[in-house]
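Input record (Table S2, row 266):
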Amino acid sequence: MHDLSPAAWQPLLTTRTLGRGAVICEHTLASTNTVLKDFARKGTFREAICLCEQQTTGRGRLDRSWSSPEGQGVWMSVLLQPGLPPERLPLLTLCAAVAMTQALRALPGCGARIKWPNDVILCGRKVCGVLLEAGFAPDGRQFVVIGTGLNVRREAYPPELADRAIALEEVCPPPERSALIAAYLNHLEEAIRACESGYIPGFLKTYRNFSCTLGSAVQVIAPAETYAGTALDVDDSGALLVRAEDGSVRRVLAGDVSVRGMMGYV
Ligand code: ADP
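Output record (adenosine-5'-diphosphate complex):
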């Protein structure tokens, strides 16, 4: 557990505030996102980090489950008060994906990419998922919780997901989790500050460079319909612009859709 403890990763931080306040670090939790949402709703913390060795009910988007067994990954959430208008909050999901991608790309041979909106991909398979949840604190201020599940060891995901999941150690010798946590938080603060202070075009340029979705043929699976098209761009709220086969350009929001490549998951 020592490499998850704040004593191991706080000295590696270069952030101004992120990661320097409250930290909840436990062996077993139901879900790190749920823990931070509960604290935020009660007004206990405005900013906090939550980490654990294993989650018993880790969650992905759309209530899908996220496999997070003991000691196999970095199961972590960040609580913060966003300085962005509500319609721009989805950008924070992209910030988390960019920050994790930058943390991984610093490792030898680790060419991480992003599948819109927020899956970090290695060798065509998902190494990290992001779950953004928002709510209101008792004082009426909005909060967000950004959860990330990073597969470090091979047993992070069950064998039945082997065609779409991967762990860091399958690509390179993984560093201590403390180094990954600090690198992620350092990049995350930088990305969020860029977006909050009006540098969204610059941030989106970085996102586009890492994207493996843009320019590709995709299938958009929405509650009411499934359609095929070409992923053209992301806009300054983080929505995906897709040219459908009838020529119309549709704006796809991350909340309730899945996007798949035409040849498989990516
Ligand atoms: P999607 O990638 O299908 O849009 P989510 O972002 O909601 O979905 O992530 C949940 C999905 O990720 C699950 O349905 C499962 O297929 C997959 N999954 C669950 N645990 C892991 C894991 N540890 N690593 C990679 N993929 C996982």
